[in-house]
């Protein structure tokens, strides 16, 4: 009995040992599997880390290049914008010139013109010139023989500007247009109100819907005629009392170079004399010589043009008086202004004409010199001063 129990216990012990051994083997296999999985995951994580680092480095390099290019684009943005705006302005100017030439061109320009018709047109043009010559001769029997004196009326405003009376009106109003680009006219009741120390309080401010360019504007018969700022050659007619634009026109050939070399801000200089409204400008095709154009201020149209031998080189201003162009020259540094070229559009150059005539008792430069046919005086703007030159005229021979 005792021997049977001992044998049973031995068998049970052996079975238990075999079960424990199998469990150990299974645990070892599981640990080995887990270890292999962890090794695989670690390798994949390590590769992922390397890839992420490579991606980060690549992104950093790419960001650096992009930011560098954006910085260059930003720095050049203003310049590019200016170039684009300038190009758009040139296109606009060209389109306006094209529209003007299209409006004035004969719609049948490509049709062959008969010789008789061409001859008739030439005769009509010649008759038109004769009528223009008779009209211009009608009320101009005198010419400039000297400049007697000057009076500095006031010193106000900047280096560039113009001031004037309206020779087409009976009133004594004074108009001041300060600067080479502006859009406000100052109107004074008379010259005494203008001369007062606090002159802006006495002035009526007249704003313009479109700013002017240069200093070559004139006031005639209640209208301001001026070169519109930002345009190549557009002339605006502005009603001062009603404060509206009453007309506009393009002046062919003008606006590409300054009218006078020493007054680069003025591309078109408008003028008034006994015959009405004129425009003065220079063209590259004439070698920089001044071109005179007679304007119809009512219809805003060109009546006739003359190429002159008067050079814009070393010129600072000019004015028309009794059909005659007088060009004022100076030195680039400013000195004694003198009239060095005179051109009568009728070809009636006489002994009274005096090229080389000096504007008296003053050193400096002029922004504008405009003739007032009603008072036979020059209204000039010199280095911020408003000046009147009294003229001496003689009968034409």
UniProtKB/TrEMBL annotation:
Keywords annotated in UniProt: Disulfide bond, Secreted, Signal
The Olfactomedin-like domain extends over 139-395
Q: Subcellular location, in the record's words?
A: Secreted
> Superkingdom of this entry's organism?
Eukaryota
Q: Under the cellular component aspect of Gene Ontology, which terms does the record hold?
A: extracellular space
Provide the disulphide bond pattern: 140-322
Q: Which residues form the signal peptide?
A: 1-21
Q: Which GO terms describe its biological process?
A: signal transduction
Name this polypeptide is given: OLFL1 protein
Lineage, uppermost ranks: Eukaryota, Metazoa, Chordata, Craniata, Vertebrata
């Amino acid at each position: 009995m005792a021997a049977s129990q001992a044998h049973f216990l031995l068998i049970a012990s052996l079975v238990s040992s075999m079960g424990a051994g199998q469990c150990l083997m299974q645990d070892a296999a599981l640990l080995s599997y887990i270890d292999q999985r962890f090794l695989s995951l670690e390798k994949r994580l390590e590769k992922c880390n390397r890839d992420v680092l490579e991606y980060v480095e690549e992104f950093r390099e790419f960001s650096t290049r992009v930011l560098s290019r954006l910085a260059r684009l930003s720095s050049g943005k203003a310049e590019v914008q200016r170039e684009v705006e300038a190009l758009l302005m040139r296109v606009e100017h060209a389109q306006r010139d094209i529209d003007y030439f299209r409006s004035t061109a004969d719609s049948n320009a490509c049709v062959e013109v008969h010789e008789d018709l061409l001859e008739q047109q030439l005769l009509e043009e010649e008759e038109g010139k004769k009528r223009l010559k008779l009209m211009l001769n009608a009320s101009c029997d005198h010419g400039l023989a000297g400049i007697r004196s000057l009076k500095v009326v006031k010193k106000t405003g900047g280096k560039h500007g113009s001031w004037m009376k309206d020779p087409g009106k009976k009133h004594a109003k004074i108009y001041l247009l300060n600067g080479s680009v502006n859009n406000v006219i100052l109107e004074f009741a008379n010259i005494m109100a203008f001369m007062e120390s606090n002159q802006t309080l006495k002035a009526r401010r007249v704003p313009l819907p479109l700013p002017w360019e240069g200093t070559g504007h004139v006031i005639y018969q209640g209208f301001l005629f001026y070169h519109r700022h930002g345009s190549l050659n557009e002339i605006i007619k502005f009603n001062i009392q009603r404060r509206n634009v009453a007309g506009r026109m393009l002046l062919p050939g003008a606006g590409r170079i300054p009218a006078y070399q020493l007054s680069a801000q003025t591309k078109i200089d408008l003028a008034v004399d006994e015959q009405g409204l004129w425009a003065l400008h220079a063209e590259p095709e004439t070698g920089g010589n001044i071109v005179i154009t007679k304007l119809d201020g009512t219809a805003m149209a060109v009546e006739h043009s003359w190429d002159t031998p008067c050079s814009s080189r070393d010129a600072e201003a000019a004015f028309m008086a009794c059909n005659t162009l007088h060009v004022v020259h100076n030195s680039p540094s400013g000195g004694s202004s003198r009239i060095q070229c005179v051109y009568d559009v009728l070809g009636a150059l006489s002994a009274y004409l005096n090229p080389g005539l000096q504007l008296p008792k003053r050193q400096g430069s002029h922004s504008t010199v405009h003739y007032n046919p009603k008072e036979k005086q020059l209204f000039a703007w010199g280095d911020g001063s408003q000046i009147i030159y009294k003229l001496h005229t003689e009968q034409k021979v």
